[in-house]
């Protein structure tokens, strides 16, 4: 049977039905062709059996047969779903009356062939039906192919191309659907927002191919951890979101703990072990938001809080959310737009050569002038930019801006001086870092000797080989290299020997204690300067603010100083004025600045970090008055803004958690907000408004 099927594979099946063998032989002789597979039946019953096995292009059916005649057979054929579209040619004597002919058409006949056969007509009609059959087959094949392609397209539209997990589009649909179901059934829905810790470093150091392999393995592990009915999606990059239907806060916490536990095991790729940790933000519908946008936003806010507190942990929305973390959460989105909006600027702090008293170089410092918040401290936004992977783009902007500024000063006739730039640790494991620097300097026509790159000890840790290679290439270009904040990290002598540093910068924390000699600062500073001199390295002291510090540094033969004793960081136009006023001043002489007096207080930084406490206090009091909060509600509200949980508020105010919940419910109702984050947002907006009035 199998050989019979293979022999006739690809041929067109034609069914010949006649009770007389000689008629079947005559039909076969007329229409037989190589591409036809002719199947013969001598009764209606036998024909129906063949129809169960084969697909036919056309049926030649004798009308007058003993037992089941042609009309009865045709009725059954047309009644079956599988065979109803097969064309039937009735074969009959030429003496049939019109009533019988009409009956044939009524039961599904396409045409009649009269006996005796006209070979040309019979052959032609069969060929036409075969052509129609083949055309239908082609159309069906095209339809099937289109359906398969549509399935592939639909799968691609709703699934991630790398991991095969549902993508954000399907996630959004599933989230809306699950929220509707949860509302209808009065059930809760858990949302876990997952982000891999420091995954940016994996891509930068090992390449995107290895990063993709890790993402695939992560997706498999997440899918294996969750329960049946849970929904895992890749939201983009190294972010994943899990929906937990019919799951309350405790159940969601259990899943989060299982994920953290599962990630303790390494990922095995190409015989290498990778230890990847993850941070998780958790929110639960309807308590943490009653629509898809709000619940995702709040889970994301909880995720940020988890990362802020050290990564490799989970955080529940509400827990620990305070005014500063809310500000930082908002800052992520605004940072992405800062370069395009031209919100960044550079200030320059001069570095004075002690022996000559001349300004030999300066350090470029980044500033962010936020359109609503005003100046934002680098200590606040730089860590966020590094975490988000934006620091590479920002540092590239800094280098280009410094080159442009050097050219502008040159056009004004000012003498060229070296400008120091701080680069993030991420650059030194970036593959195209050297090419990027060369391109920028070439395009700006800046000599490499006018650029100095500062690197901290922490940037070297764990990447000694690749950082050493990168720094060597930078030094070979002619760019100077400084080891920044020396003494605050490992203070490794191996680093001084192994890496091509030109300069060591002593951290300001040692300079602050220099005069009082607290913590043996004087011995440490003098030893660093002596050691650098033996290694043919120069020393720059940071944070010099008083004359007694300057005198000691002069005695220790420090090369250059930088700090408020000479100048705070200056805008480019103010830097020119400074050069004019102080360019020829000797370091041994008393600096002619406001900071030249002997004082013990540290100068106020030019940019304040975070939210101003006085403005925050006034904003909370204003909200109390406008919304008629009681004194006890005010106490609770202040602690909410500080980020305390219900339990912590209960312990702090010595009241029950039930009472705390009642106070919070009343506060949210009076403020006309739905949750803590919206309340904190209201406080923050009030702070911004008051600060704008103040300014």
TrEMBL record:
One of its GO terms (molecular function) is DNA binding. The keyword Repeat does not apply. InterPro entries: Biofilm_reg_signaling, CheY-like_superfamily, EAL_dom, EAL_sf, GGDEF_dom, Nucleotide_cyclase, Rev_trsase/Diguanyl_cyclase, Sig_transdc_resp-reg_C-effctor. One of its GO terms (biological process) is phosphorelay signal transduction system. Residues 13-130 form the Response regulatory domain. Residues 622-687 form the HTH luxR-type domain. SMART domains: EAL, GGDEF, HTH_LUXR, REC. Residues 187-319 form the GGDEF domain. PANTHER family: BIOFILM ARCHITECTURE MAINTENANCE PROTEIN MBAA, DIGUANYLATE CYCLASE DGCP. This is EAL domain-containing protein. The lineage of its organism: Bacteria, Bacillati, Bacillota, Bacilli, Bacillales.
